[in-house]
Amino acid sequence: MKISAVRILELNKKYNLIEGLSKRELENPEGSGIDLRVGQVHKLLGDSLLAADGTSRERYSPKTELLGDFEKDGNKTIVLKPGEFVLVTTIEVIHAPAEKLKYDNSFPEGYLIPKIWPRSSLHRGGVSFHATKTDPGYKGKLAFAIKNQGDQNFIFELGARMFNIEYEPVIGEINRAYSGQHQGGRVTSQGEKEVQN
Fold first, then answer.
1. Which residues span the domain enclosing 170?
2. What string of DSSP letters covers 97-114?
3. Does any domain span residue 30?
4. For residues 181, 185, 190 and 194, what is the CA-based torsion angle, rounded to 10 degrees?
5. Residue 54 clears pLDDT 60, i.e. is over it
6. How many CB atoms neighbour CB 52 within 10 A?
7. What is the pLDDT of residues 63-119, one digit of tens each?
8. Are 103 and 17 in contact (CB under 8 A)?
């Protein structure tokens, strides 16, 4: 069951689910979700490692090069050439509360998790979108990957609406809230080895 954009905004006033929403989304969201904007673009440089539990438990993610940052560069134009793959982050900061919330009087309290969708402008431009789930307890900017699968350049500006967020309740209990290394919106370990949480 998805929660409407209007209800998300009502819950946002009480629980601070999304910080930094644009005026458009605060005043006149379209459809069932709320649009989020691209804030940073990172190019991957080098290898990454994800080891199995029970072995070294070490991991590292690649170093990156920052291609653009909305806070520093404003509406800088980014050109994603055919075959290029980048990590992108949101301008907005997301809170997935670690405690159950009363999201509707017709239902019991529950954990709320965000579900992220690409705006259709991505696939209409030949771009694939890669995301994972966000667990209760996470707070920070969200990071995704996009890849130009088409034959032409995909051109976008920092600050453009690129993603859409909806919230869904989780049925039942969770064992523990998110406590992973990407808490706070970290994009990568920059090649530094670390022990998996």
1. 5-192
2. -SS-B---TTS--BEEEE
3. yes
4. 0
5. no
6. 8
7. 999 999 999 999 999 999 999 999 999 999 999 999 999 999 999 999 999 999 999
8. no
Element containing residue 95 per DSSP (H, E)? strand 85-95
In a domain, 62, yes or no: yes
Please report whether residue 112 resides in a domain. Answer: yes
Q: What is the C-alpha separation between 94 and 6, in angstroms, rounded?
A: 17
**Which is more confident, 112 or 53?**
112
Give residue 97's Cα distance to chain centre.
15
Report yes or no on 86 lying in a domain. Answer: yes
Query: 115 and 167 in contact (C-beta within 8 Å)?
Result: yes
CA–CA dist 137, 158 (Å, integer): 28
Residue 37: which residues within 8 A CB-CB, separation 6 or more? 22, 70, 90, 91, 92, 159, 160, 161, 162, 163
Token pair of 105, please?
A: 């009087």
How far does the chain reach from its first CA to its final CA, in angstroms?
31
Q: Is the dihedral of CA 32, 34, 38, 42 positive or negative?
A: negative
- Domain tally for the chain? 1
> Does residue 73 sit in helix, strand or coil?
helix
CATH code where residue 162 lies: 2.70.40.10
- pTM value is 0.92
φ/ψ region of 85 (left if φ > 0, alpha if ψ in -120 to 50, else beta) reads beta
